[in-house]
Amino acid sequence: KLHSDLDKGVGTVKYTLSGDGAGTVFTIDETTGDIHAIRSLDREEKPFYTLRAQAVDVDTKKPLEPESEFIIKVQDINDNEPKFLDGPYVASVPEMSPVGAYVLQVKATDADDPTYGNSARVVYSILQGQPYFSIDPKTGVIRTALPNMDREVKEQYQVLIQAKDMGGQLGGLAGTTTVNITLTDVNDNPPRFPKSIFHLKVPESSHVGSAIGRIRAVDPDFGKNAEIEYNIVPGDGGNLFDITTDENTQEGVIKLKKPLDFETKKAYTFKVEASNLHLDHRFHSVGPFKDTATVKINVLDMDEPPVFSKPMYTMEVYEDTPVGTIIGAVTAQDLDAGSSSVRYFIDWKNDVDSYFTIDATEGTIATNELLDRESTAQYNFSIIASKVSNPLLTSKVNVIINILDVNEFPPEISVPYETSVCENAKPGQVIQTISAADKDLSPAGQRFSFRLSPEASNKPNFTVHDYRNNTAGIETRRNGYSRRQQELYFLPVVIEDSSYPVQSSTNTMTIRVCRCDSDGTILSCNVEAIFLPVGLSTGALIAILLCVVILLVIVVLYVALRRQKKKDTLMTSKEDIRDNVIHYDDEGGGEEDTQAFDIGALRNPKVIEDNKIRRDIKPDTLRFTRQRPPVEDNTDIRDFINQRLQENDVDPTAPPYDSLATYAYEGNGSVAESLSSIDSLTTEADQDYDYLSDWGPRFKILADMFGEEESYNPDKVT
After folding, report:
1. Is 101 buried (19+), middle (13-18) or exposed (0-12) by CB count in 10 A?
2. What is the DSSP string of 410-421?
3. Farthest CA pair distance, the chain
């Protein structure tokens, strides 16, 4: 309740409320100032509220007093029971633990106010699980309550725990949880055989290493505490058997170490001991953690296959032994009481086995074909023996036959030797060491001998020195050899072996003469090197040869050019009426030189059809042959010149052949001036060449020529 001293009770004061929960949780009477809760309060949800109150004048709305703050605290009541937030619980404790052994601690939580009353004061108790376990009322620690709890008797326990507030008093609230407790195993039990004697029946045909029976000792423990190790106690028959532990079933597996024979011994007795592998020292006082049982084994008689007298047979025979020769025998017996007869045969696997045969009754082995040691030195096959009374019972044995060598091949030089001798070799010098090989299987101590063949013994070139250790040396017998006289020597060497009968062969060795330095190092063995001059290397000789070849080429080119020059010499004719422009290499000639051009080509136009190269000039390059149209058979020089002019005008490859020649007695420096038509006046009027007769004897031929042309053709050519 709120009240202001200024409130006279006449309704002039108004009370207001603000703050935490105002209007939602709490409300105030504006006239009286009474505060009321308008809904239920939960301390666990909100333990207190902070509010502010003020008195206000009803008329002026102004505060009559400063605003005051106050706290409303929610008082706790016991409305929450204890709860196990981590339950249910799972725990374990070793079996045979003493009283008070720690198992687990549980904890309950009460949401009530622990500072107010006993609402949050919790007490623990066991509702189910006594008398095996106990719990501390205050701490909630669970411990064992009975000694020597045995896992093999009971392994799982379920304990019901209660937590009650109000200190456990009447009217308090309570909560419960479950604790599942498991007793873990310890090795507190030794293994025990369920019976003292085990009887086993084993066939005598059982294979070595096979399992012939199982026995088992019982251990109520679990896991590694129940692992058992079995051992055979030394005694009767213990060395024929062995025992191991099956890890999955913990059984003792008895295995056979040696073959059994009913005819030799029919029963065996021995003891087996079972013990734990992992012992717990706390339980040694209980007694030894092992047990012993007796095992009796009865051997059963079985119909067994024949048994060979040896595990393997080895025989020897000479090669080329006649077919049908007996080389050995195998023997097998039936050891059973009935003692049946035995039959033998070869286990055919390939064609090699057909080289031998076996007598089915006696077991003797004989050759069936001729044997060759060089082809096959050893044969390996199997013989099978079966009982007549039961052919399905068979046994097998390996037979090895070694083929002995007969000396049938002569020895030969082991490898092809490349032997050489220096030209400057001295007598007695070893130039090659040789050895021999024999295709026959050489027995221990066999030796080869070396010598020259009789036809080579008298030659003074080489000799053979036998070292008597299956090698020999080729030695020189003279001082120096010449490749010019003889490059190759052929030396026949006779090689004999020491077997019987003695075999020998003649092997021809090739010895090449080589050029060597003073130390005996070979410099050259080529045939070409014989003719090389002494003191010149190969490179120098090649250079000399190249120089000679170059000189020969230069001479040939010079001769060819001279011949070409002669062919290109310009020819002329006495009847040539053309101006000849000629270049002379030397002085002289003049108008009497008429050999520069062949005037016959002008006289006879058909010559053009021969496609000859012009001889009045020396062509610089080779021109393609031009196909000229045929020229009519006439002697009109004008038509011929026009025709030639037209051809050269349309031919792009034809150079201009107008040329200028300088004569010693012509031109500006000559009394006769120039005779060339280049400077002559071109006119249609007839020319008078009579003045040529007045020029002297040097122009007589020219005067006669033009005089004849005037009589032959009235047209004048300029």
Report:
1. middle
2. --EESS---EEE
3. 189
Contact 431, 421 (CB under 8 A): yes
Angle at 441 between CA 436 and CA 446, to 5 degrees: 60
- Which one-letter amino acid corresponds to residue 313? Y
Distance between CA atoms of residues 461 and 582, nearest Å: 80
Write down the H helix ranges in 571-670.
600-603, 637-650
Confidence at 7, pLDDT banded by 50, 70, 90: confident
Is residue 341 a contact partner of residue 390, using CB atoms and an 8 Å limit?
A: no
Give how far the C-alpha of residue 679 lies from the chain's centroid of Cα atoms, to the nearest Å: 98
The C-alpha angle 311, 312, 313, rounded to 5 degrees, equals: 135
What are 643's two structure tokens?
A: 């025709």
**Mean pLDDT of all residues in 1-11:** 79
- Antiparallel, parallel or unpaired: β 312-318 and 394-404: parallel
Asked if residues 149 and 156 have their Cβ atoms less than 8 Å apart, the reply is: no
What local confidence, expressed as pLDDT, does residue 277 receive?
84
Per residue in 289-344, pLDDT (tens digit) is 889 999 999 988 887 888 899 999 999 998 888 999 999 999 998 877 667 889 99
H or E element at residue 28: strand 26-28
d(Cα 257, Cα 238) in Å, to the nearest integer? 10
Whole-number pLDDT of residue 441: 62
> Which residues 6+ apart lie within 8 Å of 225 measured at CB?
185, 186, 187, 219, 276, 278, 280
- Please state whether the peptide bond connecting residue 501 to the residue before it is cis, i.e. omega within 30 degrees of 0: yes
Domains and CATH numbers, the chain: 13-73 (2.60.40.60), 83-184 (2.60.40.60), 197-300 (2.60.40.60), 307-404 (2.60.40.60), 412-524 (2.60.40.60)
Which band of pLDDT confidence, cut at 50, 70 and 90, is reported for residue 594? low
